């Protein structure tokens, strides 16, 4: 693996940890004994929106990796679909079962059968159902991106930067239209915020795809510049309107900074000649499992410190709980990867090997 891709694997793992910190701080700071130790760290994490930074890094990495892997492997779409299915769904379904169980045990929350069935598809938000775990919305965005890449691959458009740019602008245009409809006084459209944000996430992924195209070919840099400028001008516009006392976001600084920081981190990791930290690359390998299962570790910790016998574990500064939650999430993610995710990845690879190679696919 090249140094560049190894560094992106490190970034994938660190992005998962940022999401863990965001959710952990939101959960534990609600405990009075922890809050009285000081809320500065929680405020810092919240103001920078570590979770959104991590998610945007995931989106840029997906754009950088997925289209190129489709083209480089030059396999039929059936093979790609099989591998993606076994890479994503079995581990996701296990996390869904655990999330439903924990919601019932700790929160006395029962999801309807139709909600559960909709969540098995990863498309529940588009179908009008709530996410059993809020973080599942990002998987819907990823799945849509995979489908768009597959369609462009079948139409022989995935190697053409102008079509990657058009796809980026298409996602951006849809995002803007949805936001305008949402804020229109006469609008009857009231989409969940995560659904309205998905087209923007798609645009970000195609930015990553164009950056990879430029890196591989050293040509057509203007397409990547146009994509990045148009996509990341949105958070700059939000921030500028805020300074002009015409805010269109409840938290404009938080929204803008999270996007710009994520882009900056990605560009530094992907394009500067940094020596990879190989030991941290393992976090990238298990990042999907960390992402899906970290809330289980967080809520179990919360339950322990809320018990009469668990008061001995309460009252420490927030940083202690973030450290323990991070370690617990990594351990749980490693176990899930070892016993669930990796075996199904291997199964997907073995099932896709028998698929015949395409003839002049590109």
Radius of gyration: 21 Å
Q: Would you list the SSEs in sequence order as H and E?
A: HHHHHHHHHHHHHH
Portion of residues in helices?
Answer: over 70%
Structural class: mainly alpha
Poorly predicted spans: 357-362
Report what the structure shows.
The protein has helices at 3-28, 32-35, 40-48, 50-73, 77-107, 113-119, 137-154, 161-183, 193-217, 221-243, 252-271, 278-285, 287-306, 318-353. It has 362 residues and is mainly α. The protein has a domain at 30-278. The longest helix has 36 residues, at 318-353. The chain is globular and about 60 Å long. It starts with a helix and ends in a 9-residue tail after the last helix. The chain crosses the membrane at residues 53-71, 92-111, 135-154, 163-181, 193-211, 223-244, 256-274, 286-306, 318-340. GO terms for molecular function: acyltransferase activity. Keywords: Acyltransferase, Membrane, Transferase, Transmembrane, Transmembrane helix. Residues 7-335 form the Acyltransferase domain. Its EC number is 2.3.-.-.
Offer a few descriptive terms:
single chain, 76% helix
Write the layout of secondary structure elements.
Layout lengths: L2 H26 L3 H4 L4 H9 L1 H24 L3 H31 L5 H7 L17 H18 L6 H23 L9 H25 L3 H23 L8 H20 L6 H8 L1 H20 L11 H36 L9
